[in-house]
Write a structure and sequence with these properties.
GO molecular function, one term: triacylglycerol lipase activity
InterPro entries: Acyl_Trfase/lysoPLipase (IPR016035), PLPL (IPR033562), PNPLA_dom (IPR002641)
Helix content: 25-40%
Structural class: alpha/beta
Pfam families: Patatin (PF01734)
Number of helices: 12
Shape: globular
GO biological process, one term: triglyceride catabolic process
Distance between the termini: 22 Å
Radius of gyration: 19 Å
Protein name: PNPLA domain-containing protein
């Protein structure tokens, strides 16, 4: 069983809710047999699952990053009352719905994120710099070993590995999708990483939206030419040659050989919000980055896009986490991958 995570912006909290559900319902041993592919925020979640990073701390860092834009002067201007009223008309939703935060249910990781004191981000620094700080705070230093195919997880050293560059890159269970910006925008995939820093750089490039995250893309393998993977492949799927059989000696059940697609937007994905039956319109796969999936043209998706780029309030982050957890639970039951109840 393999998993694909779409680009999501700050709705990466939705992906984290899905990740927590997968850990709880399927178990770590099963996930150690899985491969993960992701773009932008989805690539970060793929790395979190493969390295078994602390999801509670990921929620803490997601909330911290949301505060960057919530506190940013540009965001305060763009999310003022005038724009809120305009957006409410476009989305056919009351203006107070766009700013409401009451009644948000918080599962355990979300409670941690809501109550743990965290350092406010520096709004004078490029946003991508704050993303890097958060990534280094949650991804373990032995991330490459945890992501590897060759070694059963139970035999990994208890201590963190150094970040020294090995002699060659090793295959991993994580595929990161980026966009090569020059000379022509083109989707590229990386699943072999030479060091911890090499992995961090790939993840930063996959999440780098020019202008929004900064002016110059992160340096990756000697070039500043890789940017957000969602610009060319927002809903990535594994190619047959990218899938590798799981290590036979790993314990735990082997699930059917298929890829579960995850997205915080309404559409034809395995794990996504429930469809809006009142809106039959779907975005057909006429664009290269839609693959074979379709996205519903619905007010809920427009609100989700709004929140993905300009989070209205960090207190909404736990709500999206809960939505991801609930949608994943429902989908796993429908796929008969977990028991009801």
């Amino acid at each position: 069983m393999n998993f694909s995570f779409s680009g999501a912006g700050f709705l990466g909290a939705y992906h984290l809710g899905v990740a927590q559900c997968l850990v709880n319902k399927l178990g770590r041993e099963t996930l150690r047999r899985s491969q993960f592919i992701g773009t932008s925020a989805g690539a970060l979640t793929a790395a979190v699952l493969a390295t078994e990073a602390d999801i509670d701390q990921c929620m803490v860092q997601t909330t911290r990053l949301a505060k960057y834009w919530a506190n940013h002067p540009v965001t305060r201007l763009l999310t003022g009352q005038v724009l809120t009223n305009v957006v409410s008309i476009v989305l056919n939703a009351p203006a107070d719905m766009l700013t409401a935060t009451a009644g948000v249910a918080m599962p355990s990781p979300a409670q941690v994120a809501a109550t743990t004191p965290i350092q406010d981000p520096d709004t004078d620094a490029p946003f991508i710099q704050e993303v890097e700080r958060s990534l280094r705070a949650v991804l373990p230093l032995d991330a490459l070993e945890r992501m590897a195919f060759q070694t059963p997880r139970s035999t990994l050293a208890a201590t963190a590995a150094s970040t020294a560059t090995p002699s060659r890159a090793s295959p991993s269970r994580v595929t990161v999708v980026v966009t090569r910006a020059v000379p022509v925008p083109l989707a590229r995939r990386f699943s072999q990483f030479t060091s911890y820093d090499d992995l961090i750089a790939a993840l930063l490039c996959s999440s780098f939206i020019p202008g929004y995250c900064g002016r110059v893309p992160p340096l990756f393998r000697g070039a500043n030419k890789y940017i957000d993977g969602g610009l060319t492949d927002n809903w990535p799927q594994f190619r047959p040659d990218e899938l590798i059989a799981p290590v036979p000696e790993l314990p735990g059940p082997t699930l059917p050989a298929r890829t579960i697609k995850v997205s915080p937007f309404l559409g034809t994905f395995d794990i996504c919000p429930p469809p809006d039956d009142s809106v039959p319109y779907m975005l057909a796969p006429v664009l290269p980055w839609t693959n074979s999936d379709k996205v519903q043209v619905a007010p809920a998706n427009m609100r989700a896009i709004y929140d993905a780029l300009l989070p209205r309030d960090p207190k909404l982050i736990p709500m999206y986490f809960q939505n991801g957890y609930d949608d994943a639970t429902r989908a796993l039951r429908q796929l008969r991958l977990c028991e009801a109840g």
